[in-house]
């Protein structure tokens, strides 16, 4: 006889590749990503800003963290400048990490919005599969590591990536800013 039996629904989905997950293991790297999402900075600038934020790290350690983020393709060199016989590198994040959690009481107040989102996304997903199902399935098959793995998980991942990239496009083109500011 079971002491506890409970249906545990999926409540959150985290999608990232292992290299990016490893890069985010360190909270200093998360702070660097946050800083570089706002402005391009040199290693020296990142070092100074980390110190201002209470992180007393050596400049070589900061350089190591930036290199880990660069290797994970989360940070890029945005600009090179000649400086005193050398080259100064400026870095910028190409990745936005949301490490938030909704307030405990938000589920009830967001329920109507969730219902609207679910209905609208159902229609969008049906349209995407009707118009691009072959491409989605082809990419999912390429990702599937073995014939026994469930293909729908890979298709769902591809779909989530498409939706995430569409949101990024809306953010980068200013559409989300316009929506959030009331279209001013």
From TrEMBL:
InterPro entries xrefs: ArsR-like_HTH, HTH_ArsR_DNA-bd_dom, WH-like_DNA-bd_sf, WH_DNA-bd_sf
Ranges of residues in domain HTH arsR-type: 19-106
Molecular function as annotated in GO: DNA-binding transcription factor activity
Pfam families noted in UniProt: HTH_20 (PF12840)
Protein name: Winged helix-turn-helix domain-containing protein
């Amino acid at each position: 006889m079971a002491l506890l039996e409970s249906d545990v629904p999926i409540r959150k989905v985290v999608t990232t590749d292992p290299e990016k997950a490893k890069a985010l293991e360190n909270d200093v790297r998360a702070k660097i990503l946050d800083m570089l999402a706002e402005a391009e900075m040199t290693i020296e600038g990142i070092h100074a800003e980390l110190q201002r934020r209470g992180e007393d790290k050596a400049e070589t350690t900061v350089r190591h963290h930036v290199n880990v983020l660069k290797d994970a393709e989360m940070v890029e060199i945005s600009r090179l400048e000649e400086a005193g016989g050398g080259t100064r590198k400026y870095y910028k994040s190409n990745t936005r990490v949301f490490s938030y959690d909704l307030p405990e009481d938000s589920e009830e107040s967001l329920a109507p919005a969730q219902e609207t989102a679910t209905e609208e996304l159902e229609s969008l997903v049906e349209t995407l599969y009707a118009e691009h199902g072959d491409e989605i399935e082809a990419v999912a098959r390429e990702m599937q590591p073995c014939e026994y793995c469930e293909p729908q998980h890979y298709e769902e991942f591809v779909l989530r990536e498409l939706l995430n990239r569409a949101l990024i496009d809306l953010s980068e083109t200013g559409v989300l800013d316009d929506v959030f500011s009331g279209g001013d």
